[in-house]
Amino acid sequence: MKCSLCPIRCGADRSSERGLCGAGGGMRVSAVVIHKGEEPPLVTGSGSGAIFFPGCPLKCPYCQNSQISHKNLGCDVSPDRLSSYMIEFQEMGCSNINLVTPTHYADELILSLDAAKSKGLVIPVVLNSSGYEDIKTLKMLSPHIDIYLMDMRYGSNEAGLFIGGIPDYWARAMDAVEFAWREKGPIKTDKTGRALSGLIVRHLLMPGMLSKPFSVLDFLACLSLKVPLSLLSQYNPRFYTGEIPEMKRAVTYEEYQAVLSRAIELGFETIYAQDIDSQESYAPDFTNFYPFGDGINLLMRDNMKLYEP
Prior knowledge:
Number of strands: 11
Oligomer: single chain
Number of helices: 10
Distance between the termini: 21 Å
Strand content: 15-25%
């Protein structure tokens, strides 16, 4: 069957070849790790049970996860094995199952989540997305998803093409965020502050305002001021491999404050902010037993070797 899971719809027969995202047949996973670096409602308790999937159709030239998004570092994992890790996260007190850039494995994910539910999974499931999604695929996964954590990386198609080489990112991301908002609405939490359902939208500010952040804010404000906004300052120029001079520096305090002030002026009810020097705090090493400095990669604990296919 020709693959059409993402908006690129490369048409690869993944039983015998890899798609543009890098995924072939079966399912690969790069890390299964308790992650404490997400937004507060997602890490209350023991943290978020994060499962990182290799491959990505975007191949952004600044990706801090390029070891897995570009090089596809990971190992083969069956749906049943993955479901057992989900149950282990639940037993460890995690607030949720956090599926990071997973939609190119939608078919296998549905099998994994069905198996986990049959084993007693009750904690919420997070779809942690680049924002570049096909609505058909989101609808496939929707019955299994409680929380959407959506990127909006650029505020125009022109910015997406200039920075990332993707001509329709903005159009696709607007559709994806609108879909997630209609499905779940704002974040709902229990009395301890753990997120139960809802949508959070992230915007990674880029130097020189190249990502068109004010356009992102205006779109979200028109959608609803109840949309929780996570404004990220963690852009790290050491990962950048492109040729845009402005992208070879960090975001300044003045740039971040200007966007944060605009979000406050617009009246967003919930804004998650980062320190301006946060870029090194969110730079994982997926070759390490502890990719984020704490929290062991359970794949490595179980002697599963990560490799580039």
